[in-house]
Amino acid sequence: MTDALMVLITAVEEFERFVEVEDLRRIAASVLAAENVPAAELGVLVTDDDAVRRLNAEYAGEDASTDVLAFSLREGEEFVSPDGVMRLGEVIISYPTASRQAAEAGRLVDEEIVHLLVHGILHLLGYDHAEAEEARRMRQRESELLAGSP
C-alpha cells in the first residue's frame, strides 16, 4: 500500500481568491492522518449556493441550499482498490453560506470553511448526526480535530 494522500481543492472562479487552497489541503491531510487513513483521495469543491442547492435537490431530494455536502465513494457495494488507496469522495462547500454562518457566529469565514471541511470529511469516513448519540460523537470529534487534538 502507498502512504499517499491526494487532496484536490477547487474553488469556483468567483471565490478562488478567498480560498487558501494549501491550508485546506494541509488540514484535510491532517484530519485523514488523525483518523488513521494512510492512503486516500479526496476532492473538495468550494462553490456557490445555487450549485449546492442543485446538488442537494438532485441527490438528497431537498430543494434547498446548505453549507456542506459530502458525496461518498465508499457507500454501496464494497470495492477493494488494487493500489490500496481509499477513494473517499467529494466535499462540496457553499462559500456564501459559510460566509453568512461565520458572520452570525462572529468568526472568520476561513474558520467556518475549515469547520465545514472537517465536518464533510468526517461524513465521508462514516460519521453521522442522524441520531443524538451519533451527533454527540461527531461534534466531539470535530471539536478535537479543530483544536488540533488527535
Offer a concise description of the structure:
The protein is α/β, with parallel strands linked by helices. It contains five helices and four strands. It starts with a strand and ends with a helix.
Structure write-up:
This protein has one domain (5-146): Metalloproteases ("zincins"), catalytic domain (Collagenase (Catalytic Domain)), CATH 3.40.390. It contains 5 helices and 4 strands, in the order βαβαββααα. The protein has helices at 21-34, 49-60, 95-105, 109-124, 132-146; strands spanning 5-11, 40-47, 68-72, 86-94. The radius of gyration is 15 Å and the shape is globular. The longest helix is centred in the C-terminal third of the chain and has 16 residues, at 109-124. Strands 1-2-4-3 form a 4-stranded mixed beta sheet, with helices on both faces. The chain is α/β, with parallel strands linked by helices. α1 links the parallel β1 (5-11) and β2 (40-47).
Question: What is the topological layout?
Answer:
Elements: E1 5-11, H1 21-34, E2 40-47, H2 49-60, E3 68-72, E4 86-94, H3 95-105, H4 109-124, H5 132-146
Parallel strand pairs: 1-2, 2-4
Antiparallel strand pairs: 3-4
